């Protein structure tokens, strides 16, 4: 049994989704998506720039799970934002996915021209081909500018968040605005050091859970949508096996204490891609 969150436009999203950043196109992505759907995931998070939308679509079809039972997210890349290609880029993503709608379409980064891109996303939303629209890597000031200038609120802001960089102030601000938050690099990212932290395995031992499961549970209990990435079927299954235990307040506080305040990924106010 998974938990879901109802976004501000009424769309229901499973709280744990499979992330496929740095999952190579082809068999690796097809297998990760089918393993996830067979394990009970009903939420896949991709992006044009991950270059694996075609394989995500293939995995969905191969799984036999009904398309309407799956929550699919993709994202508008920076070059397309700058080139004002929002609507065309969206069509291209649908084509690669082999779908006639996505559940959520996001502005990937606040690149120059994101304000115009938001107009494109609103038109796409009005057409029904994205059931919800939102943003990613928006700081508080970006959200404030957007909220002041648009009637349609973003349903989500997808941002870097993990025990090492909790990003809690931004999460709290988004929640006050009825914007849900999705965490990328929720386990500390590819090649990260977080999962080797003995504090996490010690907490996990009390519940019979791994460090990764403790971290995913921590995200769930603070009300965040969490998008763990793995290319290994066993880990993919493990990462969804987090609904049969609850971290105590003391253990939540112990995970909170890991925060270094330093990002692993790019700074949304200073990126060059
Ligand atoms: P792999 O894909 O080889 O399984 P994030 O979601 O923060 O981006 O982190 C993903 C990283 O954590 C990847 O390197 C992934 O490696 C690894 N990972 C994902 N799930 C687990 C798990 N349950 N146990 C250990 N490592 C994991």
Structure summary:
This protein is of the alpha/beta class and 273 residues long. Helices cover 41% and strands 14% of the residues. Helix 2 runs parallel beside helix 4 and helix 8 packs across helix 9.
Write the layout of secondary structure elements.
Blueprint: E1 4-6, E2 12-14, E3 18-19, H1 27-39, E4 43-45, H2 53-63, E5 71-76, H3 78-82, H4 86-97, E6 104-107, H5 114-127, E7 133-136, H6 140-149, E8 156-160, H7 168-176, E9 180-184, H8 198-207, H9 211-221, E10 225-226, H10 233-240, H11 249-256
Parallel strand pairs: 3-4, 4-5, 5-6, 6-7, 7-8, 8-9, 9-10
Antiparallel strand pairs: 1-2
Helix pairs in contact: 1-2, 1-10, 2-4, 8-9
The structure holds adenosine-2'-5'-diphosphate.
Q: What report would you give on this structure?
A:
With 273 residues, the protein is α/β, with parallel strands linked by helices. It has one domain: TIM Barrel (Alpha-Beta Barrel), CATH 3.20.20.100. 41% of the residues lie in helices and 14% in strands. It has eleven helices and ten strands. The strands form two sheets. It has an eight-stranded parallel sheet. Strand 6 (104-107), helix 5 and strand 7 form a beta-alpha-beta unit. Helix 2 (53-63) runs parallel beside helix 4 (86-97) and helix 8 (198-207) packs across helix 9 (211-221). It is globular, with a radius of gyration of 18 Å. The N and C termini lie far apart (39 Å). The model has no long low-confidence stretch (mean pLDDT 98). Bound molecules: adenosine-2'-5'-diphosphate. Adenosine-2'-5'-diphosphate binds next to helix 10. Substrate binds at residue 108. The record marks 75 as: Lowers pKa of active site Tyr. One of its GO terms (molecular function) is oxidoreductase activity, acting on the CH-OH group of donors, NAD or NADP as acceptor. The active site is at residue 50.
């Amino acid at each position: 049994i998974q938990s879901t969150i109802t976004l501000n436009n009424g769309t229901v999203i499973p709280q744990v989704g499979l992330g496929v950043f740095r999952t190579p196109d082809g068999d690796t992505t097809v297998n990760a998506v089918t393993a996830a759907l067979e394990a009970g995931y009903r939420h896949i998070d991709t992006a044009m720039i991950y270059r694996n939308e075609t394989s995500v679509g293939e995995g969905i079809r191969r799984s036999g799970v009904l398309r309407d039972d799956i929550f699919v997210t993709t994202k508008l890349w920076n070059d397309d934002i700058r080139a004002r290609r929002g609507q065309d880029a969206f069509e291209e993503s649908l084509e690669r996915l082999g779908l006639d709608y996505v559940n959520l379409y996001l502005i990937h980064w606040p690149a120059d021209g994101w304000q115009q891109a938001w107009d494109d996303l609103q038109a796409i939303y009005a057409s029904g081909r994205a059931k919800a629209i939102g943003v990613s890597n928006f700081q508080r000031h970006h959200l404030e500018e957007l909220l002041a200038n648009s009637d349609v609120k973003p349903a989500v802001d997808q941002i870097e968040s993990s025990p090492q960089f909790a990003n809690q102030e931004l999460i709290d601000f988004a929640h006050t605005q009825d914007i849900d938050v999705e965490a990328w690099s929720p386990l500390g990212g590819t090649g990260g050091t977080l999962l080797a932290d003995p504090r996490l395995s010690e907490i996990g031992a009390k519940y019979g859970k791994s460090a990764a499961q403790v971290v995913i549970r921590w995200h769930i209990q603070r009300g965040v949508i969490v998008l763990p990435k793995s290319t290994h079927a066993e880990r993919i299954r493990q990462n969804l096996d987090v609904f049969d235990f609850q971290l105590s307040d003391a253990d939540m506080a112990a995970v909170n204490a890991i925060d270094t305040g330093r990002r692993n990924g790019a700074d949304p106010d200073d990126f060059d891609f």
